[in-house]
Amino acid sequence: MNDMFIKSREIGKPFKLSRRGFIGASLGALALGVVVPAGRARAQAAQAVVPGTRVSAFIEIRPDSTVLFRSAFIEGGQGIFTAMAQIVGEELDVDPANFTVEGAPPGPDYLLIGGARFTGGSMSVRMSYDAMRKLGASARMMLMQAAATQLDVPVAELSTEPGRVLHAKSGRSIPYGELVDAAAGLPVPEEVALRDSADFRWIGKPVGRLDAHDKSTGKAQYSIDLKVDGMLYAAVQHSPHLGGEPDSLQNEAEVAGMPGVHSVHRLPGAVAVVANSWWRARMAVEALQVTWTEPAPDVSRAMPADFSTEAHLAALKAAPGDGIAFEEEGDVSAALAGAAKVVEASYDAPYLAHGQLEPPSALVRWNEDGTLELWAPNQAPEMFQAHAAKVADIEPGQVIVHSPLLGGFFGRHFLYETANPFPQAILLSKAVGRPIKLIWSREEEFLRDALRPMSAVRFRAGLDADGLPVALHAVSAGEGPAGRWFGRDPDKVDSTAVEGIAGKVYAIKNRRVGHIHVDDPAIIGFWRSVGHSMNDFFYETFFDEMADVGGHDPYELRHRLLADSPRHRNLLEAVAELAGGWKRGPFEAEDGSRRARGVAMASPFGSEVATIAEVSIQQGQIVVHDIWVAIDPGSIVNPAIIEAQVNSAVALGLSSALLEEVVYVDGVPQARNYDGYPILTPDQMPRVHVRIVESGAPMGGIGEPGVPGVPPAVANAVSTLTGRRVRSLPLSKFSLEEGGAT
Amino acid sequence: MDLTINGTKHQIDIEPETPLLWVLRDELGMTGTKYGCGVAQCGACTVLVDGVATRSCVTTVDSVVGAQITTIEAIEEDPIGQKVVQAWVAHQVPQCGYCQSGQVMAATALLKETPQPGDEDIASAMVNLCRCGTYNAIIAAVRDAAQA
């Protein structure tokens, strides 16, 4: 994700400010901070705003001393709203339970990721932790200064307890809610002391999620649930091939006369029906008999009519050469030439769909003042704002973006243009002069999702006389999503294409990781753990091949090659200990089943992860009994949420390993719903055991790192059970008969 | 036609084959019941029809006239539903939360039918999909709700 991080700086720069960014969604309380007229605020903002420093942009203390907090990062299940309440509440001295958190509007205050903002790359907490602590501490100091004036005592004599300022000497105290007016006029302090981590009450503790009750009672509202006055509903039917346009609509008059139908529309690459309910809109748009044009030759990213995943995989496997070097150490050619044994294998992984449970939607309203209001699931408000402005032909500052809770995301809700419904909703709303809520049916979602790319990798390893790897040569072919969406330098390798093959921690002296760019005909995107989602599978399963050929136990070989890397060696030992000791198997379990274990390590998103899986094969099905995960994110904010996120990552990683594969034939995806694209079911979920190791290293990510170790750990165990290597996913394609042909 | 939802009668004038899901969401504004797949694969749309977990995305509205329909909006008015919600919060089940209305309804239906479910009962009743992988927390919460 580093490429994305750097490139997105450019994307983040030129945003104008929405009014809402300054006036805020005031709930009748004054924002804490310098209150200035909007005109002056704009002028000030034109000067440099240092992201994450202006208290008023984030914190609103209400009269009852509870806090409305605007989070730069969007909540989609990863627990970020709760984490923000913990971090800010710790320093502000407000119990996180007294926070209400919402997604912040676009604006310069929220560009906390290198001058840009997105919710992704497992970056939210680690990129904003220091700034959010300081923000909370600054607000607390302003409240204390206001209290000092009111009580006519020196600030030094004051302290706080949750929600109030105390003057211990006189026994007087003032609730925060009564200090807001006075505090709002004070400047944000330049320097503030932060709380000693030994005194943390909420950071590092398993604080309950703020949204658990609302999400257990149907009260939580997602984009798809929202409604505004005068709104109409819209449904679309897309061209089967991206780039095709609607030609003739044979039965347009008939469809226009269906119950509840308001109007029938042609959109770029789609037809739409606007109606007084979504079901009526959907029934009508699916009744439309449309002739689609073939994409014109100059249409970029048009889906070729003969595109198939099978042919594309063959092309990736056949891509010649060693590619551009991304990582190079020592002399791999010489080491291979001098090796006692050479191990070679080719690996591949398929396209994946996001499959988040909330289908994409967009709600659009044009306001009388010329502004456009957009509610849409998004991981990047400023990028959506900029693109919405382009589509609507207005200034970005005239687009008000709301970022509701995400019903799952996993990388689905970045700006992918043809994969986002909001441009269609803008055009429809403009055409009918009414607010529009557009929902994509699950079938349209499977047609237009931005996929985890397909990739193929060729490995060659050289082993010395002791069977230890001395050379590793890898050539990956495909395309990374960062290059696709943030610009690709043809002379450089997109790190999102090779992360997880490169950046491995084992001491193998001579290495070369090369990448061959092969343009992907599909619309590709970011999928939870991005390149790691497949690359660690490739590398860590090939690692077991090296171990087997060299006559070493795969755990012991990893342990040996981590001799000079104590952080990783400790983590490997931690996961083995958590699993009751390493044993590869096959062995007989207490229930009489024949089982094996696989191990894998990964270094994704600034964290380190070691994973062990225990697997059996029963009635021709792979059964994953237990997954043990030791994760070292350096330091933590909420251990309960980390455990939940690791469970979640295990589920997604296992789902991809066992079941998932997007297949195209004749330019069309074969699955259009979960019946054709199965995802992990409850009965396939293993027990998950988590150990958090706080090594004190710089803080790493949490949302994604649990994913990459799962497919290789499971595949390695399956290989031990069957005696054959797994070199392609998903495992549903793998013949499970022992010793049979692959 | 007349629908009884959460004990309240609603007069609905709509095509009889409309799925109950969209009557709830678009006609009545009860958006706690979710659309996930529309083909009874995921269970996000689960409601109770005469106490039985039912996938409202494939249940035509005319087929439930005269039935007692319970949605997530009324879950805490039901003593078993209330226990389920408490267990859900205690176990911090939801992540993104989108499937959880359906999960809570499925759990409530199970415990109404089988107050002390065994592992098999839980496995055969709790089949809704969750992309966030909250499955282990769901099972733990169902077990706890049964003991409460």
Automatic annotation (TrEMBL), chain B:
Transmembrane segments: none
InterPro entries (alphabetical): 2Fe-2S-bd (IPR002888), 2Fe-2S-bd_dom_sf (IPR036884), 2Fe-2S_ferredoxin-like_sf (IPR036010), 2Fe-2S_ferredoxin-type (IPR001041), 2Fe2S_fd_BS (IPR006058), Beta-grasp_dom_sf (IPR012675), Diverse_Oxidoreductases (IPR051452)
Gene3D superfamilies for the chain: 3.10.20.30, [2Fe-2S]-binding domain
Sequence ranges assigned to domain 2Fe-2S ferredoxin-type in this UniProt record: 1-75
Domain of life: Bacteria
Keyword annotations from UniProtKB, A to Z: 2Fe-2S, Iron, Iron-sulfur, Metal-binding, Oxidoreductase
GO MF annotation list: 2 iron, 2 sulfur cluster binding; metal ion binding; oxidoreductase activity
PANTHER family, A to Z: BLR6218 PROTEIN, OXIDOREDUCTASE WITH IRON-SULFUR SUBUNIT
Protein name stated in the entry: (2Fe-2S)-binding protein
Organism of origin: Paracoccus kondratievae
